[in-house]
Amino acid sequence: MSASAITIAGLEKHYGDVRAVDGLDLEIHRGEVFALLGPNGAGKSTTVEILEGFRKRTAGEVSVLGVDPHHSPKGWRANVGVMLQTTSARSALTARESLLHASRYYPHPRDVDETLAAVGLTEKASAKPQTLSGGQRRRLDVALAVIGSPELVFLDEPTTGFDPEARRQFWRLIEGLRGDGTTIVLTTHYLDEADYLADRIGIIAAGRLVALDTPAGLRAQATDARISWVEDGERHLVETPTPTAFLRDLLARTTGEISRLEVVHPSLEDVYLQLSGDAADAAAAASAPATDREAGA
Amino acid sequence: MTTTTATAPSWVSMTTNRLAVEVKEFIRSREQMIFIFAFPMLFLLLFGSVFGGAVLEPTSVTFAQYFMPGMIATGIINTGFQSLAMSIAIDRDEDVLKRIHATPLPATSFFAAKIAQVLFVSIIQIAILIALGVALYDVTLPTDVGRWWTFTWVFLLGTAASTTLGIAMSSLLRNAKAGSAIVTPIVLVLQFTSGVFLVFTQIPTFLQIFASFFPLRWLAQGMRSVFLPEEFAMAEASGSWDHGLIAINLGIWVVVGLFLAVRTFRWTRHDDN
After folding, report:
1. Is the preceding peptide bond at B58 cis, omega within 30 degrees of 0?
2. CB distance A107–B3 less than 8 Å?
3. What is the C-alpha separation between A50 and A52, in angstroms, rounded?
4. Residue A181: closest CA among chain B residues belongs to which residue?
5. Is A238 helix (H, G, I), strand (E, B) or coil?
6. Looking at the 3D structure of chain B, how many domains does it have?
């Protein structure tokens, strides 16, 4: 068995002239929690849907649990759990019935009531999806994605619309899955979520991978700390890789209390915004000459 | 980690499980129950009340006895074609099909369960229709085995044609919300021209010819050959029950429907590729 749950090489997906995914290379290891981050339209969901076997790719090689998801053999689906980005529709079945029926498609399903409890829906077991709140429906979706005890789970923006408490509860659920050795691939807009859950984070922008590292590694990419203070009624802001040296100078040339003095180290969000912003600018710059050429032709 | 195939659920158990979901969804859906399931019964009661025991001259057949097979035929079309086309289109639109596709359920299980659900609902529907007809309008039932054999093959061919065409139709309904507005008129026109709401031989010849290109006319005629006396065959368009033509026409539609259903079916929305 290969150590990789997923390998992606030179993946491309075009919609007409638009390159939603534009030469993506990535390897996701077995047993890791991998977060795919990126702005809307960066190609996250397109990539995930290709991995799930729902979309055809334009070019490149993809292997998920050792097989091409577009030509997946019988039995492959039993090892892959999928939580779609769209929330489950109305149904005549209760939450518990949905899970019970879904569990019967799998060779080694999880216990239905334990799974309901794990997603915090025990009290809503006999409710139909349309009577659940948005967050509760998403938790039912998670339960449906993991009911078959898959080796690999895809979670596409799983916590969108959750309140903070529901998000924490969801994080504990994911930690529990990680403990079972499940490989988890999640896409998210929330940096704190990726920071907290993921072993590694891939940042995707304009269809390309622009960063791939551990959360700590990504944070370390930003070297400049920000020092801000108010002097003579005016706010000052300095970005420097050597904040201590700067502070020493600042303290030496001032007397008394420095108003509103702050030293801030960049958050993961700052790194993310910088990386995805740079990539978007680069993509815009790359497409601009092409337009000129067309106009000139 | 590795999955042993020995414990994987069998095709039959997965199909049965899916059928249970289908039946629960159908029975618990009020719209389906009223507009699909009860529709032919409402019309049987309506026609029964309007025409009562009036007789179709020059035969001794009552209107109720004539409309009974028509309602059975239209019930099969409603359940197999109309209901299936709309429900699959909605399920595709709401990503329900995509969710099913994400599970290990084989496509063949999915379709087998759909067909089994249509058969199950149709049989109950027909049983209630017959019971209503017998209890309220003195409809008489055939007693010989030959006629029930005719009923069986006409029912199965009609259901197969409706179901495959219903699945194919669902792919044409790109906007599921418009589904009802597209499918209902199609079914209504066929019902009026195929001898369901009106006596077939009393409508203009060009409409009879039009209806002959579609399955409902043949399905209704096949059902009449089960429930109407032998001498009524003389009152049919060609002066005969035309069992051969019925089998050929329904059979062609089964093949056409199957071909279109398999070629056009997709799990995901049309804009989702």
Report:
1. yes
2. yes
3. 5
4. B1
5. strand
6. 1
Residue span of the structural domain in which B173 resides: 12-264
Q: DSSP assignment, residue B152?
A: H
Question: Do the Cβ atoms of A124 and A52 come closer than 8 Å?
Answer: no
Q: Residue A260 CB: number of other CB atoms within 10 A?
A: 10
- Burial of B202 from C-beta contacts in 10 A (0-12 / 13-18 / 19+): exposed
- Which domains, and CATH codes, for chain A? 4-218 (3.40.50.300), 223-296 (no CATH)
| Residue B271 falls inside a structural domain | no
- Report how far residue B98's alpha carbon sits from residue B90's, in angstroms, rounded to the nearest whole number: 12
Distance from CA of B96 to the nearest CA of A (A): 7
Q: Give chain A's count of helices (H) and strands (E).
A: 9, 12
Distance from the Cα of residue B211 to its chain's centroid: 16
> pLDDT tens for residues A114-167?
999 888 899 999 999 889 888 888 889 999 999 999 999 999 988 877 788 878
Q: Taking the model in full, what pTM does it have?
A: 0.84
- Note the pLDDT tens digit of each residue in A191-229: 888 989 999 999 998 889 988 999 888 888 777 788 999
Is B7 within the bounds of a domain? no
Q: Please give, rounded to a whole number of angstroms, the shortest distance from the CA of B110 to a CA of chain A.
A: 12
Three-state DSSP class for A92? coil
Which residues in B have their CB inside 8 Å of a CB on A? 1, 3-5, 7-9, 13-14, 17-18, 20-21, 24-25, 27-29, 91, 94-96, 98-99, 101-106, 267-268, 272-273
Report yes or no on B273 lying in a domain. Answer: no
Rounded CA separation B166/B74 (Å): 14
Give the integer Cα–Cα distance in Å for A251 and B15: 77
Contact A276, A39 (CB under 8 A): yes
- Residue B1 within a domain: no
Half-sphere exposure of B162 (CA within 13 A, CB side): 35
pLDDT class for A280, splitting at 50, 70, 90? low
Cross-strand pairs, A200 = A34
Q: Rounded CA gap, A7 and A185, in Å?
A: 13
Digit-coded pLDDT (tens) for A50-103: 999 999 999 999 999 999 999 988 889 999 999 988 876 778 899 999 999 999
The type of residue at B14 is M
CA angle B96, B98, B99 (to 5 degrees): 65
**A126 has a chain B CB within 8 A of its CB:** no
Could you give the CA distance from residue A139 to residue A173 in angstroms, rounded to a whole number?
A: 10
